[in-house]
Amino acid sequence: AFHERLGYRTVAHFTRCGYKLGVWYDMVWMEKLLASHPAVPEPVVPAASLDFSPVTVPLREPSV
After folding, report:
1. pLDDT tens readout for residues 5-54
2. pLDDT of residue 23
3. Is residue 8 packed enough to be buried (19+ CB in 10 Å), middle (13-18) or exposed (0-12)?
4. Residue with more model confidence, 8 or 57
């Protein structure tokens, strides 16, 4: 009830899927949409056309 009051909804319930210290536990997955979706989404950008240098260049630099 706590999460539902905050706007979350249950999207999956897994019965007795985890075992710990002699007890079986259920697992629940919940979601909350943070913004509305556009009527028509932006086209998918191929990964080959992306510029990864803002990520790869700092990774190549020696750490301090």
Report:
1. 999 999 999 999 999 999 999 999 999 999 998 999 999 999 999 998 88
2. 98
3. middle
4. 8
Which residue type sits at 8? Y
Question: Which of 35, 28, 27, 25 is closest to 9 using CA atoms?
Answer: 28
In terms of DSSP H, where are the helices of 1-64? 2-5, 53-60
Q: State the residue for tokens 């998918």.
A: 44
pTM of the model: 0.55
* DSSP string for residues in 20-51: ETTEEEEEEEEE---SPPPSSPPPPPPGGGS-
Q: What are residue 62's phi and psi, to 5 degrees? A: -65, 140
Half-sphere exposure of 33 (CA within 13 A, CB side): 5
